[in-house]
Design a protein that fits this description.
Homodimer. By secondary structure, the protein is an alpha/beta fold. About 35% of the residues lie in helices and about 15% in strands. It has two domains: about 5-35 and about 260-350, Aspartate Aminotransferase, domain 1 (Alpha-Beta Complex); about 40-260, Aspartate Aminotransferase, domain 2 (3-Layer(aba) Sandwich). Strand 12 and strand 13 (about 330-335) form a beta hairpin. The protein is globular.
């Protein structure tokens, strides 16, 4: 305890990121980054940008990027909010749509930042257990008495709810905010964005970090009813008017415009994911049917933490969670095809 810190700063348990060791070169399969670089158009735009403009503040409304996103989804720019990564938008959402002590509902196994934000903003988290197969039972989310957040596909399981299931949750909670965190939706799901004009209680959050290869630029966006977006803007402009720097805005614009490269990169990841699933099953692994850019796997002969440590010794980083229910699993980001061959061969050595 430090006497200069607030009670909250002393007590909160921060989010734990995937490790980033620098002692040697690793194959990084632990933080769900894209194995492919951004579109070449991103590089070109940054190189050709006016260096002198860096002395000026960026557009606080990020209008150019908002307009491109709005055009794609046939919405208005007032339906779009841009944040410094989707994590920032999640934090703003917890502040904008909940009062202190309000309940917030989400799965007991999901993105761990939700618990951090619940604690940080003094919300009453209500964790709804997953089914035995790690899937979400939508019946547990009907007619609740407060707001809901669901990652779809869920993390770290990678399991997907179909759009009709998401809509069932939304329409049975018309008096509650329903936040759908779609960080991984591009790898196999149908986005709830198409429901925005139908439901004013729906907020959809996406990121540029995964499918658009811009994790280093910290960009995310939310789409929702104009009043919800106004609430997010009220929070943002009470903290920092300029959350997105000029180069990130340029990168986001070009990444979003290059639809061909986006589809090509996503397709390669999906193909590699499905091939990796089959190879893992041949080795006796339990492999959840992920629709994301990662796999959640376990083996009945070797404990998850042991696999994680042995892979690290071999220069391969994966994610291990010391959490009840999933402590025998590891989460593996889908890398390049070549990286996944190295990963599979390393597992063969470990098992043998």
């Amino acid at each position: 305890m430090n006497k200069f810190l607030s009670d909250k700063a002393n007590s909160v348990i921060p989010y734990v990121q995937g490790e980033q060791p620098k002692d040697k070169k690793y194959i990084k399969l632990n933080t769900n980054e894209s194995p492919y670089p951004p579109s070449k158009n991103v590089k070109k735009a940054i190189i050709e940008s006016d260096f002198d403009d860096l002395r000026l503040y960026p557009d606080p409304d990020i209008s150019d990027l908002k307009n491109i996103i709005a055009e794609k989804y046939k919405l208005e720019s007032e339906n779009i909010f841009i944040g410094n990564g989707s994590d920032e938008i999640l934090a703003f959402s917890f502040m904008a749509f909940f009062n202190k002590k309000d309940k917030i509902y989400y799965p007991n196994i999901t993105y761990s930042f939700y618990s951090v934000y619940s604690d940080l903003f003094d919300l009453s988290e209500k964790k709804i257990p997953l089914k035995e197969d790690f899937s979400i039972d939508i019946n547990n989310y009907k007619n609740l008495d407060s707001g809901i957040i669901i990652a779809n596909p869920n993390a770290p399981t990678g399991l997907l709810l179909e759009l009709n299931e998401i809509e069932e949750i939304i329409k049975t909670n018309l008096n509650n905010i329903v936040i759908i965190d779609e960080a991984y939706i591009d790898f196999g799901g149908e986005s709830a964005i198409k429901l925005i004009n139908k439901y004013n209680n729906l907020l959809v959050i996406q990121t540029f970090s995964k499918s658009r290869s811009l994790a280093g630029m910290r960009l995310g966006f939310a789409i929702g009813n104009k009043e919800l977006i106004k609430g997010l803007k009220n929070i943002k402009f009470s903290f920092n008017s300029y959350t997105i720097n000029r180069l990130s805005i340029l990168a986001g614009i070009e990444a979003f415009k290059d639809e061909e490269y986006f589809k090509k990169s996503v397709s390669k990841i999906i193909i590699t994911r499905e091939k990796t699933k089959e190879e893992l099953k041949k080795l006796g692994f339990k492999v959840l049917d992920s629709k994301s850019n990662f796999l959640f796997i376990s083996h009945n002969k070797i404990f998850g933490e042991n696999i994680y440590l042995k892979l690290k010794d071999k220069g391969i980083l994966v994610r291990y969670f010391k959490k009840e229910i999933i402590n025998n699993f590891i989460r593996v980001t889908i890398g390049t095809y070549e990286e996944m061959i190295i990963f599979i061969n390393a597992l063969k050595e470990i098992i043998n």
